[in-house]
Amino acid sequence: MRIRLGNIYVVLTVACVAVMVISLAVSTSGVSSRLVWKDFLLPRLLMGMLAGASLSMAGAMFQALFRNPLASPYTLGVSAGASFAAAITIILFGGGLVCMFSAVSIAAFLGALGSVTIVYLVAHLKQHRSIGTLLLAGITIGFICNALIVLVLCLAEQHNLGAALRWMMGSLQVLKFDPVLEALPFLAPAVGVALYLHRDLDLMMMGEQVAAARGVPVRISRRMIYFSASLMTAAVVAQCGPIGFVGLIVPHSMRFFVGPTHRRLLPACALAGAAFLPLCDLLARNAMWWLRGESRQLPVGVLTNLIGGVFFLVLLLRRRGDRPIF
Fold first, then answer.
1. Residues 180-219: pLDDT tens digits?
2. Which of 70, 142, 230, 236 could make a disulfide contact with 80, Cβ separation 3.0–4.6 Å?
3. Which residues have CB under 8 Å from 81's CB, separation 6+?
């Protein structure tokens, strides 16, 4: 078993290196090679690897917390809260900089954290608090934010409307290394908490009563898992927009290969996510050039949503134990 696990990690590492080499070798049409390396391809690659690893780990954590294999980093309205704040900033202020930082990124990060906090407080108001209440509160807040986004877009001017829509598609189009450096201070401690709580995640999947009987401080661990996974998601969404389904596809795939133990699963998710998202970005940014000879780029969120939608449908069809509806 050890040899098999070791081989899987070796394969994932080789896949990461291969994706890095290919992504840096295949440039987007119409951009000079020097500019690509300095300001475009390398920052974009690093942002994609960082975002893919973080979303994948957050997905594994949420699935363990909710004991639901269909949970993802955007289940709790994180993406919707960030998108709402970003849309307001783009439409009312046109973006810009605040203290040398992107105003849209700051607004998206604050919107994501605000949404997470509201979800937690709403679930906390209920007398008999449960994971199911937290999940339903997140879905409800997500619906409210999405409705407000539609309202804001209806009131937007045409030039700002296009910018807001492009952001909400999810993209890795970053210039220079500033977005990577801005995300790292938030991602590093959250990843550290995730790795530290690997045993608690294993026991939480068995149920809170079992976890408590094994010595896990359930309330504290639940809060730490919830907020660290949300922080990872918020940091990524603030820089890249809502890139969906990465946190659903990668944990499911890695759980099949390395098992449900989070000491093995979390590193595997990080490696696989760091290879998966840059690969999707490579395909998305060159798809129009390969198919039609056009220099336009597809946002990577469009491709991950297409892949994730099919993946999600397959999971639903293969799921067993549901009651018949007819």
1. 988 899 899 999 999 999 999 999 888 878 888 888 888 8
2. 142
3. 111, 112, 113, 114, 115, 116, 118, 141, 145
Contact 36, 27 (CB under 8 A): yes
Q: Is the pLDDT of residue 129 over 70?
A: no
CATH for 2-315? 1.10.3470.10
What is the rounded CA–CA span in Å between residue 204 and residue 226? Answer: 12
- The first and second tokens of residue 145, run together, are 């934010």
| 156 half-sphere exposure, CB direction, 13 A CA radius | 25
Which amino acid does the sequence have at 165?
Answer: L
Distance, CA of 172 to CA of 265 (rounded, Å)? 25
Global pTM?
0.88
CA dist 170 and 176 (Å) reads 18
Predicted confidence at residue 325, as pLDDT, reads 42
CA gyration radius, the chain: 20
